[in-house]
């Protein structure tokens, strides 16, 4: 955020609120603790005050000519090198005391990144994440890391997780974290990672096969030791970007 030409804290607090954009980015990654998939998110280390050296969500001030969704997409691209496949407005956070200096209202988006995209060595994302010491991936359930976040970003992440867990129950969110072709077991991995609990494989498979928005393909997953599982595809809405006029 640009320097405010006032040295007096009281004067800064009387200025009109500044607008900012933040983005919560979720991706599925291997969890070394459990050997299963879990939900991860990239955070950035702040290099200036307030909250210098603390981790925060990627974000920045809203430019005078920036659209909200373009600014949010730029946050994801600058942090991970990726173009979002799913981007939705989450909420507006504007408590008067969320910033220790001038009041800042943050319009928050959340994005979903496929695991294959995040690990693709042919994309810019890999080099960005490996070479930038101010960007790192954290488990979404890492409470110790979240307690040390700048501003009210812990509250924002908790709200984003709540929204994600609610939407995965009835929407197409799970497929935004998968490739074009996927097995039923991979879909279950997404649900287990998002809901943070194990699901009965047989019951889940039966329920998923009755769903109307996925279809069998003639392809099978190769490379395993056992009988290769069939691959499926998502047949629902192809929309990758969503933007609401209302902040909700």
Automatic annotation (TrEMBL):
* Residues covered by region (Disordered): 219-248
Residue ranges of domain Nudix hydrolase in the record: 41-158
In terms of Pfam families, this protein maps to:
NUDIX, WHD_NrtR
Q: Where's the NrtR DNA-binding winged helix domain?
A: 175-233
UniProt cross-references to PANTHER family, sorted A to Z: ADP-RIBOSE PYROPHOSPHATASE, SLR1690 PROTEIN
This protein is called NUDIX domain-containing protein
Native organism is: Paeniglutamicibacter antarcticus
